[in-house]
Batch of 3 targets.
Target 1
Amino acid sequence: MLIESVPVWTLAVVWGVGCFGMGMVIASTSVLLLKLSAPQEAGANSAALQISDGLSNALLLAAGGAAFAALGGGSVGAAAHGAVGSGTATAHPGAFTVVFLPMAAVALVGVWVASRVQPR
């Protein structure tokens, strides 16, 4: 559901800030990993970081997409645009909550883990 009082360009600004933050974190994590790795372990550690990043992205996207679809999230957009549905799926805005709340929890765990890092 859109809130009429919020300008559309706000979304672009929010996504831009989020993407900038993600870019900063990923680059910083790679640099920190290489700095803290012994030279003979740098390749294996870098590969492990890339695999864990890709695997976690795929798993969270698959789980979130499956939950969203199971709750009829795909029909939310279709119902809002007046599309004629051929199935029995009904619009369920709660599908967005099922996706965004666990992802917010993952973000909070990431903040908690990052707070444990101490400068030397």
Note: The chain is about 70% helix and 0% strand.
Target 2
Amino acid sequence: MTDARQVIDNEVKSSDVVLFMKGTPQFPMCGFSGQVVQILNYLGVPYKGVNVLEDETVRQGIKDYSNWPTIPQLYVKGEFIGGCDITREMFQAGELQQLFVDKGIQVQQSA
């Protein structure tokens, strides 16, 4: 039995942009995960998708890790950004794009 917190911590710290989601970036298994995938793909930001449906301990563990009750969850450079609504609102306001730029992550589309 691996420690879910350690697994999550490693994922968050090993990639600049990590999306804990239901399904995969190619096949999102819920609409909210799909919306965040669409935003990240539109911006051309390289990211790692972690499918929480594959591991129940990670699925519950990510909620405890971030103290956030829902999935998807977006992390940038180890920092929890938010779920679908926050990500979408930041994107629409141009704040998400600015966050990526500020963190030194290449964005192919700007607002």
Note: The radius of gyration is 13 Å.
Target 3
Amino acid sequence: MSDETSTEERGNARKIRDGLVVSDSMDKTIVVAVNQRVRHPRYFKTVQRTKKLYCHDEAGDAKVGDRVRVQETRPMSKTKRWRLLEILERAR
């Protein structure tokens, strides 16, 4: 086994989500709102569920309104379990 093991070979790939930055007021931390469309079990109507993820942003370059991609990581604090991968689109 080589030292360069990818996440696919480990068996448990880390989750990746796209979302919108709703807060950047903390130091090195952003809050990202991730929308998920699910079908209601009884009424079969599509509803949106929103989850707020606390993400580590080392450089602090993500601003409110940016569309970003985040990846699951080890716990960095009590609530922070995600880290910023890339900024997909800047806010206008």
Note: The domain at 16-89 is CATH 2.40.50.140 (OB fold (Dihydrolipoamide Acetyltransferase, E2P)).
